[in-house]
Amino acid sequence: MMELRDLPELEEIHSVTGDTCMLLKVRMQDSKAMEALLKRLYDMPDVVSTKTYVALSTYLERPVQAGITEF
Prior knowledge:
15% strand
């Protein structure tokens, strides 16, 4: 996971349940940047496969709410 922290496109890392183990939130300029990021991910020794989902629109995005989420 330390290598992931070095990726400037990476905004968030989440541990998840289901058929995968991690969810990475990334932000990039275009599909060529996405291809370059995927190549760097596949060059990492522990990365076996990926699934890519593209968010077309964001309806709600807010920071941690005081008093609701403890950190």
